[in-house]
Each structure stands twice: as structure tokens, then as C-alpha cells.
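Async update (no meeting this week)

Hi team, since we skipped the sync, here's where things stand on the single-chain job. The sequence we agreed to prioritize is pasted below, unchanged from the tracker. I ran it this morning and attached the output directly underneath so nobody has to dig for it. Comments welcome in thread, and please keep replies under the output.
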Amino acid sequence: MQRIAILGAGRGGLSLLQAIKDNARVNIVGICDLDPNAPGLAEAARFGLKTFRDCRALLREQSSIDIIINVTNDPLLDAELEKIKEPETEIIHGKAGMFIWALSNAQQQLHHDAEQRSVEFKELYELGLKLSSSADLQEVYSTIIDYATMLTNTPAGSIAILDDKSGEMTLAAAKGFSDDFFTLRRWKLRQGGLTSYILNQEKPVILADIASLREPVNPALVREGVKSIIAAPLTVRGKIIGILYVDDFKLRKFAANDSSILGLMTGYAALTIEKMKLLDDTRRMAITDGLTGLHNQQEYLKRLEEEVARAARYGRTLSVVELDIDHFKMYNDRFGHLAGNGLLKVLALAIGDHSRMTDLCARTGGEEFAVIMPETDFQKAMQLAERLRVLIEELRFSVKDEVDQSITVSIGVASFPEHGGTALELYHAVDRALYKAKQAGRNRVIGFPDQPAANLQMESG
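Output:
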């Protein structure tokens, strides 16, 4: 084991002390400095090492010193040491001593960087585990943004997804912004624009001051007060799928490590997003009617059970509307099945556009549709159903060069809990009401068991 004395306890001596104190092959026998407030003296005392104000006292007390490292850069001290040291003691002094200080600094920095990178890789590993166990796409987006902002120590972040067909970017998720930030949910790619530039880069793009950019940035970012950004393109097997952003509300010189850690993250992120989008599409196909894009009958029945259970649990109302196109077979016979499919699409759009966000619209049969209306009582459901019937009756469209075509629908309405205490009872109740509407002459709304909409006071407008 090498017995070492350090002369100079300023920044150089402190750095050297910290670099070699844990080395099993080194025994620091003392550290010396004329300044009692030198930081290396306090650090040495903290570790139980001997400290001295006079190098002569150090050399007298500590015999058999193998190496004296002089980091004071004082040539007079170098000359004095040559006179008083033991013959076998080696002195590293002057530039060599400062070189060791610089080397120890570099070693310390490397050690710090290695520890930091170890933490980052651990976080990335945990990110990978979380992403692999995420249940849906929105959870994936949120997890990615959480880790991106944590690892770069930024207060905000977002993910925008590219729609290949429309050439638009869609804001998929964001964190750290006000509610107003979501007003601009979609924007077009502009050739030569900033978003296009970022998407065409292989590495993250650091925007230290967005105010200095010649290209205009998203006005929502300006309103939020964003000053600095790192934007990392998300790519899978060469395919661009979007951008991951981290944002700071103050001017910031991002470190190269911030960029590299985001670069590593995007590999996990893009792959998981792409996988979850495929799963999402598969799930959507499983619960969606392929022709109209509305929910299919299987999903309708499942959701009806869930909504009835929720209404029962919280004492809420719930209504179901079921409608059927009048004389649809005659329409198909006259214009053909392709025209019939076109009519079903038109009707699905009308139903979807005039339903509320909380409603669930489904195609439940060939020409049958249904709408689940949570927290809607019987009177309100009858009013909404009548409004929908009138809207459909007033639709005009062309088919096979015949203009001004129209259709009518028959509608049944039933409500929980008065017309059925279970999903199955409610299903049969609304089906019976629809049958009554068709029996009564079609193009009308009947509420269970046989109450015409005309008997209710309808809302104006």
C-alpha cells in the first residue's frame, strides 16, 4: 500500500483527496495547507485523516512516506521538500501534481457520469417494464411523458402523432400545460416548417430559445410561455410516427446528456406506441361495425349491461333508443345493395352527429340501430328520439341519378328503472316499443309499452 501525503488543500487538493481516498492501494497519511479554511482540510477531518498547517510537521510525524503530491504549484515549496524529505520518498510536484489533480477531476467526472448513466439506464429499464404492462394507448403516452420530463428535469412535455393519410399532426397527450393548450389539437405539416424539419432528423433537436427561431412555432406554446424545447422524432423501422417533446418555461441550455437520454427513450416509446396502435385498431375492429363505424351489437349488449349496473349502483336514470329503417327491403330492391349500404352509412353519420358525447351509438342489425343514453330519463329520451326522427325524415340525398330521395324510421324508447331493472329486461322493453311503432304505421316514436311521442309535451327548437 502506498503511503501518500498531499500538500495543498484547496480545490486541487480537495479533488485529489476525493478521487483517491477510497482506493484500497492508497493510505493518505496527511494533508497540509497554510489556510485553515481550505476545503480539503475540512473534508479530510470528516474522513478521520490527519491535517496539518505546516508541511515540516507532517513529514516529522509521518515517517516512511512513499509519495508526496504537491498541488500548490509553488516552486519554492518544491525546493524545500527536496531538502527535508527522506531519500526514498518520491515527490510529484509542479505541473505533474496539477496533472494528477486534473486527472483525478476527470476520473471523478467519469465516475459521476457513470453513476448518472447507471441511474438513467435503470429508469429506462423501468420505463420498458411499465410500457410493456400498459393496458391502453393513452396510458402509454402518459408514461412516456412522465419519464421524459423526469429524466430531463423539465416541467412539461407532450406527444404528437403523425397521420400519414391527412398529413396532420395530432396532439395525443400532454403534461404541465393549462387546459387552453389543448385547443389546437391538430395542425397541418408545412413543407419547410419546423415540425417537418424535426420529423426529418435522426436525432433529437435542441431548441434553446424558441423566440429566436425564424420559423413560427405552435402558437399554443407561445401562449403557455415555453422558452426551450427538445424535440425527439419517434421512428419505427424507418417509419416516422410522431414527435416527443420536453419543454421548459425558462431559457435553458440543455446538456448533451438530455438529448441522448431522449434519443434512447424514443426507441422504447415509438415501438410501444406502434404496437399499442395496432392493438387499439384490433380492439376497435372487434367492437365496431365495419360498414358504419358505429359500435356493433356485441359491444352494445356489453355496454348496456355496464351502464345499467352503473345506473343501479348510483341511483341514476338511463334510457335506450332503438330505431329501424322503414321499408328498407323496398329501398334495396329498387336501388340495389350498394345503394343500401350507402344509406346505412348516411344514417349512421346522422345518428352519430346528433347524439351526445356520453351516448353510445350502435348498429344492432341489418337496418337497426340503437343509442344508449346514460343519465337520461324517459321524457328526455322521448324528446331526443322525436328530434332524431324528424331530422332523418328531413334528410335529402341523391341515389342513381334520382334526387330528393328520403327515408323514415320507426323508433322505440325504454328507460331504467321503470321499464326494466336489468339490461335484458330493458333490451326486450325497447324492442317491444319499436315493434309497436312499426305496427302503428311506422315513421313514429313509441315509448314502452305503447306511448306515442305525440302524447308528450315536446321541447321547442
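Quick observations from my side:
Residues 457-461 have pLDDT under 50 and may be disordered.
The two ends are 95 Å apart (CA to CA).
Reply here if anything looks off.
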